[in-house]
Design a protein that fits this description.
alpha+beta, Heat Shock Protein 90, 3 domains, five-stranded antiparallel β-sheet, 16 helices, disordered C terminus
């Protein structure tokens, strides 16, 4: 067996590193022999030449060794640079794919997956070791339980994918409250991340909120076994990625809302057609058929010269024709009251009250401040008219009211208030608002709520069994007035209606945290209840 420390072994090793080394070694050995001969013969010139040759040989050896080290360093640097460029290329490709995905699809799942992929590539480029085990996930709020669910993940276990958390404590809650990235250390000690098996043993954790305005969609989380892996560059990178992911979520929500709104409009149009067909069948169609029958009868009477009876039948036909005319005019008025466009909201409500009084044994009273329409745009007046009409029809159909009051008045320079009050049977508000969306009893209030929200108005319902019902609508007169209604007041004003089963058009991926309301802009004046706003 060859000794690794033997001269021949060392010579072979050196030869592998530098092809010129054997030549320098042989030359040095030759000059060494020459030196020994010169010294033994007492020839100083030969000894001097041999010594110089040995020095040159040693210099060649050292230069070769240095050159070899430089070559190794250059190769290592080239390898590092090649790896960095490869990562940069992969990152650029991933960013391009993310941008392409964002612009070409409304499938936010693909965008979230791409966001995690880009985040991992970027973190490795910024310093995370290739051997470090990066764990990542995107948690999104879901409207059905107000909890965060796993929407996308890298290296999470199947058990982890079923975890549900509130997102209120630890690094996740802090990121959502502050609306900025938060870096942590040991996920095992985090009150919510500790429920994820994959995050056990991580020494670096970063949570980046997915937030738009005051609405939290969720949070993006990265973890690593490597300590101190996240830097300022990491924060900037993941924040940019989170912004793109949030845009994708917003687009998905908007698109879903458009689909739901389209479905709702189609449903409303279908209901309107059915109602019109039903009203025509039950009203004018029946009356016209009776008129035709009586005309035939009158013709027979004339042939038989029953002239006294003819006059009675003609009177009945005239009454039925008058009734039919009123019914058709009422239908046309319901579809689109011309008086609303020509004379304004107050005149339209007065005309509505008059027509409803003709059809029902109910007394209507309309009270309104003068020049109220000057503060309301035409489209707003149209929405308010249909809300009042819906409320009045509900009072007639369900409450059997004997009196209905419609009031319109201005509250300072900030609000216009509309009230529809009746002395009917009343109802249990809690029972109705907790009813299923598709139950017919709640559809009227759903329609009123939806129309009110279209004009940024707040709707409130007060009712007690046996004591009637009062519906109030608060309309801001300008943007400043609208901002005065704080989040608390809006929720108070809409509480009884918003607790209806969620509509399809209200699809959301996030639940607003209660603490965010404290961070929102404070209103110009305070009020704790709906009554305070009405005063």
């Amino acid at each position: 067996m060859t000794d690794k420390n033997s001269p021949s072994s060392n010579l072979a090793s050196l030869a592998k590193k530098d092809p010129n080394r054997p030549l320098w070694i042989v030359t040095g050995v030759g000059f060494g022999i020459l030196l020994m001969l010169g010294l033994s013969n007492g020839n100083g010139l030969i000894a001097a030449i041999a010594g110089l040759g040995i020095i040159l040989s040693l210099g060649g050896l050292f230069w070769g060794a240095q050159k070899s080290r430089l070559s190794v360093q250059a190769a290592q640097q080239l390898e590092v640079e090649t790896h960095r460029l490869k990562n940069a290329q992969q990152r650029a490709k991933a960013i391009y794919e993310l941008s392409t995905t964002l612009s070409s699809t409304l499938d936010y799942h693909r965008v979230l997956e791409a966001a995690l992929e880009i985040g991992a590539l970027g973190l490795r480029e910024l310093g995370a070791s290739d051997n470090a085990r990066l764990i990542s996930t995107i948690l999104l709020f879901r409207k059905d339980d107000n909890l965060m669910h796993v929407a996308a993940a890298r290296r999470l276990t199947r058990v982890d994918e079923k975890v549900r958390i509130q997102g209120r404590d630890g690094i996740l809650g802090e990121a959502l409250k502050k609306a900025e990235p938060v870096i942590g250390k040991n996920a095992t000690q985090d009150p919510e991340l500790r429920f994820f098996v994959a995050f056990q043993g991580t020494n670096s954790v970063m949570a980046v909120p997915l937030r738009a305005g005051f609405e939290n969609f969720g949070v993006m989380v990265f973890g690593s076994e490597q300590a101190n892996v996240f830097s300022a560059g990491s924060i900037a990178l993941l924040t940019a990625i989170a912004t793109q992911a949030t845009i994708a979520l917003q687009n998905a929500v908007l698109y879903q809302n458009l689909l739901d709104e389209k479905e709702r409009i189609v449903s409303i149009e279908e209901d309107a057609r059915k109602k019109l067909a039903r009203d025509l069948h039950d009203g004018p169609t029946q009356t016209v058929a009776m008129i035709a029958t009586r005309v035939d009868l009158i013709q027979k009477m004339l042939k038989n010269k029953q002239f006294p009876a003819v006059f009675d039948e003609l009177q009945k036909v005239g009454d039925m024709a008058t009734k039919t005319t009123k019914e058709i005019r009422h239908m046309l008025f319901t579809l689109r009251p011309l008086v609303l466009e020509t004379q304004g909201l107050v005149a339209a409500l007065q005309e509505l009250a008059k027509k409803l009084e003709e059809q029902h044994p109910t007394q209507f009273t309309v009270e309104a401040d003068s020049d109220l329409e000057t503060w309301l745009e035409t489209n707003v007046q149209g929405v308010l008219f249909y809300v009042v009409e819906e409320a009045a029809n509900n009072a007639l159909k369900h409450a059997k009211a004997k009196n209905i009051w419609i009031r319109l008045y201005q509250r300072g320079q900030e609000y216009i208030i509309i009230e529809i009050e009746d002395d009917g049977a009343g109802f249990d508000v809690e029972a109705v608002v907790n009813a299923n969306y598709y139950q017919r009893g709640s559809l009227g209030m759903v329609n009123m709520r939806e129309r009110a929200e279209l004009i940024d108005a707040a709707l409130h319902i007060e009712s007690t069994k046996g004591k009637g019902t009062k519906i109030s609508i608060l309309i801001p007169m300008h943007e400043e007035a609208h901002s005065i209604i704080s989040e608390q007041h809006q929720e108070t004003a809409r509480a009884t209606i918003r607790r209806l089963a969620p509509l399809p058009s209200e699809t959301r991926f996030a639940a607003r945290l209660a603490t965010q309301q404290e961070e929102a802009q404070q209103p110009k004046k305070s009020a704790s209840t709906w009554s305070d706003l009405m005063e």
